[in-house]
């Protein structure tokens, strides 16, 4: 019988099969191989993607299915954006083409400006998370892993927040606060005096200075985060402003 006190029946270890399944190899057919290690990025950047064919053809390999999905998501982009998407997709798996890590790092080393200017933020986040496993330096891997945790937890929290019925730009009202204890015995966050935001974000900005491959990407993402008006950080800022005015 499942333990009613467990969020995950069987414990967190029971999540391992699901985790492993999502990381299985992207199989391909002849002619669907990843671009070679010496591919000319400038040529790809100048080539617009073809339109997505719908409905999706039957009998596609996993790589072809991924390419079909990316053609829809990256509509109007270039073949270079598609290559980046395919690299990230391959490198999220346990097994991938041998030259994929080096090609991914070369792409960011040589085309960082283009990638920052053209890729949607969602793919920039995916890129920095990919560096957690495939960065060359410990500084890059450590910083990328911290960002992986930050953005993953934000995605979980903001997805739950969406069920509140409130737009992400609307702050919660202080008088509606439920004073039940936080889980795991954690101390509550003080809207006016709490320093958790600084302790969470400032070290990422600081450590970016010493991460050669992910430093600029990290600071770019933190700037985007700072300007986004629909995050928990912005809502707390609005709550703080309202509380100070009420004083």
Question: In words, what does this structure look like?
Answer:
The chain has 247 residues and is mostly helical. It folds into two domains: 14-119, no CATH class; 138-167 and 190-247, no CATH class. It has ten helices and no strands. The longest helix is centred in the middle third of the chain and has 24 residues, at 138-161. It is globular and about 65 Å long.
Features:
mainly alpha
Structure, briefly:
With 247 residues, the protein is mainly α. It has helices at 16-21, 41-45, 62-73, 79-91, 100-118, 121-134, 138-161, 196-208, 215-227, 232-246.
SSE diagram, text form:
Blueprint: H1 16-21, H2 41-45, H3 62-73, H4 79-91, H5 100-118, H6 121-134, H7 138-161, H8 196-208, H9 215-227, H10 232-246
Helix pairs in contact: 3-4, 4-5, 4-6, 6-7, 6-9, 8-9
- Structural class, please? mainly alpha
Radius of gyration: 21 Å
The fraction of residues assigned to DSSP E strands is under 5%
Give the overall average pLDDT: 94
Shape: globular
Number of strands: 0
Q: How would you sum up the major sheet?
A: none
The quaternary state of the protein chains shown equals: single chain
Low-confidence stretches: none
**Domains, number:** 2
Q: Could you give the order of the helices and strands?
A: HHHHHHHHHH
Helical element count? 10
Q: Roughly how much helix do the residues carry, as a percent range?
A: 40-55%
């Amino acid at each position: 019988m499942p333990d009613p006190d467990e969020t995950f029946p069987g414990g967190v270890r029971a999540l391992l099969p699901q985790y492993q399944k999502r990381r299985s190899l992207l199989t391909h057919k002849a002619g669907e191989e990843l671009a070679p290690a010496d591919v000319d990025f400038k040529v790809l950047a100048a080539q617009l993607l073809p339109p997505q064919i719908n409905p999706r053809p039957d009998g596609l390999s996993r790589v072809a299915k991924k390419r079909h999905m990316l053609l829809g998501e990256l509509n109007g982009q270039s073949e270079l954006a598609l290559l980046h998407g395919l690299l990230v997709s391959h490198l999220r798996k346990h097994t991938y083409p041998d030259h994929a890590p080096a090609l991914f790092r070369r792409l960011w080393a040589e085309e960082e400006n283009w990638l920052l200017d053209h890729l949607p933020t969602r793919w920039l986040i995916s890129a920095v998370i990919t560096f957690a496993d495939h960065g060359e330096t410990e500084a890059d891997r450590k910083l990328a892993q911290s960002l992986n945790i930050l953005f993953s937890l934000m995605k979980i929290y903001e997805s739950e927040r969406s069920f509140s019925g409130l737009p992400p730009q609307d702050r919660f009202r202080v008088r509606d606060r439920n004073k039940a204890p936080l889980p795991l015995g954690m101390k509550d966050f003080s809207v006016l005096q709490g320093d958790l935001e600084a302790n969470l974000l400032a070290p990422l900005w600081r450590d970016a200075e010493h991460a050669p491959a992910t430093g600029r990407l990290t600071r770019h993402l933190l700037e985007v985060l700072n300007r986004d008006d629909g995050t928990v950080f912005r809502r707390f800022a609005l709550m703080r402003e309202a509380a100070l005015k009420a004083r």
